[in-house]
Structure formats: structure tokens, C-alpha cells
């Protein structure tokens, strides 16, 4: 079976859907813990626990959403219905930051956590179906990388814009009303781009239809869990997701308490995401030349090196700090692109009927991503609590102890470096890449 080259008129709207996904991932990921501890006066460990529990519910639901998505495709030939329902997430996004004026402390944490649970469920309906698309299509090893390359560029742009624009919309000393205004603007952008993504998925399915799936297919979750290639890749990705969510969560704290300038949060996000956007096309070429596995290992090693340099904190110069953050961004680009282009390779190699289980594989994959989203902020909040960090309300001036300041610095640097080192150990156990690269399109048994 010959390889199919996907048309740009289908790829571009598909990739555009990632802008909204990037906003949903970024704004809660970077600002929600800070919103709780420094605007709503929630104690760090309480705030971290609230976000963790909200994400635990999300983790439990993702495999079910994957099976639901597979059933939707078997019944209707596509996954678009769930994606349309998922667009309702924009309303919950607004509610999450529109905390009633009488709520502060633990009660505010409960409000945010409940909204976060609802938002994560709706987002997963869109995300799981969206990310199953490359596995649904009749395309090969390199075309999967090309498709996810476009998607990775756009989602990184979305993360960059959200990370830079959100602080500009909230101002230097934001209150709840400022965050609500930010949620209205970014929520509108989320809705428009998610609808564009739905149109793109429909065009891709017409341009490169995959094999039909029989209704009533079962066993997808067990097939995925028994697949050692999937387990290895997903475990490494879980550690990467924890690390990246921790780093994003820690950025506002590092800017304020280590660098002494909270307005530098936007600069750190830009230094992280700007190089990431530029690095994705080169990573596509690198993965084509050297293979996905070796390219991903190189990116993980670069991340560890950059984190260790950042551990010097203010003892280093500003150009060195910004340059190290840029190295993290370049590595982040590979970690956005390569694992997601390896997942369809795993599904294609899972044997006959693999395409019918794509939603189950993707549901478990996004479970790992959601777990990373839960544990990343929690690990950093635990670092803050261990260092004696004191929560505050908007405008309140608090002098943090030396232990709290050290917790901010080390939680942003050495802890991520250690997690990524473990991810490297796990990633080295993945052995599918060489055979997947050589397999022709349509060969579902390449091992």
C-alpha cells in the first residue's frame, strides 16, 4: 500500500484545533496553583491537593472516554460527535476563574476543583478523539510525524500565546475579576479554534480514510495494557508530562521569588515556548534522519542539562538563565512532537484490529498526560510546603523564608532534572522504532 501525503487544506484546520487545547492545558497548568495560593489565600498543600484530586477524577475517566470514542467511530465512522460535546469546556473554563467574592481559602479551592473536574471531562471528550485521528488514517511512519509536526507547532504557539497573553490580561497585581476577564477572552479563542479542529478532522478522514471498524469491537483497553511497547512509551511519557507540568506551574514562582520580578513570568514563558515553536520543524527533520527514538533520547538529555544549569538561580547571569530556559523549550518541542507520533506506530504494530482500538490506546495515553497534569503541580506544591512557603491574598506582602525560596528554586530545577533522568531510563527500553520505520503503510504486524 503506497503512502498518502495529506493535503494542507486538511492539516491546517486540524492543527488549528490545538490552539484551544494549548490554552486549556497552559492557563490552568501555569496559573491555577498561583491563582489559589496568591490570589485566593489557599495554603499550598491544600491547593495542590485540590488540583490533584480534580485530576485524579480525570485520570479515572480517560480510559472510559477512549472506549466511548472507539464505539462512536465504529457506529458512525468518525469521532466528531464527542468532539462537539467537548467544546462546552469553554463555559467551565470561565467558571473556574469566576470565583464568587465570598469564597476564599478552602472553600475557594473546592469551587475551583469542582469546575476543574467538569472541565477536564469535557476536554477529554475532545482531546481523546482528536489525538486518535493519526491512528484512524491510512498513513505511514513519516507522514504521522509530518502531521503531528504541524500539530505540535500550533499547540506550542497556543501555549506560548496563552502563557504570554494571560499575564498581560490579568495585570501586575491581579484579583479575581482580572482572572475572569482573562478567561472570557481566552475562552472565546478556545471555542473558535476547537471548532476549526473538528473541520480539520473531517477533512483528514476524507483525504486518507483508514480501514473500517466493526461495531461491537471489544478488548481495546486490555490490548493496550498488554502491549509492552505501549507500556514503555506511556510510562516514559508520564514522567515527561509530570516534569513539564511541574516546570510550567513553577514559572510564576521562579520569576517572583527567585528572580525578584513577577512580571518576568511572560518572559520566561516566551523564552520557553518561542524556541519550542522554532524547533519543531528541525525536530521533524532530525526524527526523519535519525529515527524518533534516538531523537527523543537526545531531547531528554538536553532537558536534564538545562535544568542543572538553572539550579544555579540568581547566582548565574540573566542571559544564562534565559538561555537555559530556551534549551528546555527546544527539548519540550521534541517531547510534544515525537511521543505522539510514536503512539500511532505502536497502534499500527498491535496487530489486526489495531485501528479499532485507537481510542482505547489514546484514552490510556491521555490518562498518562492527565496524571502528569495532576502530579506536576502537586509535586511542586509539596516542595513549597516542605520549604515553609506562606500563602497570601492579592496585594498582600509576604516575606518568604530562605527555606521557601530554596524550595522554589530546587523545585523548578533539580526535581525536574531527576524526573527526566528516570524518563530516559524508561525510554531506552522502547525497541519498536526501527521496525516501525521500515514497515509499509497497512502493515499492522511490524515488530
UniProtKB/TrEMBL annotation:
Entries under InterPro entries matching the protein: MFS_2, MFS_trans_sf
Family annotation (Pfam families): MFS_2 (PF13347)
Protein name: MFS transporter
Swiss-Prot/TrEMBL keywords: Membrane, Transmembrane, Transmembrane helix
Ranges annotated as spanning the membrane: 12-35, 41-61, 82-102, 108-126, 147-170, 182-202, 236-255, 267-285, 375-394, 406-426
Gene3D superfamilies reported in the protein's UniProt record: MFS general substrate transporter like domains
PANTHER family, sorted: MAJOR FACILITATOR SUPERFAMILY (MFS) PROFILE DOMAIN-CONTAINING PROTEIN, MAJOR FACILITATOR SUPERFAMILY DOMAIN-CONTAINING PROTEIN
Top-rank lineage group of the source organism: Bacteria
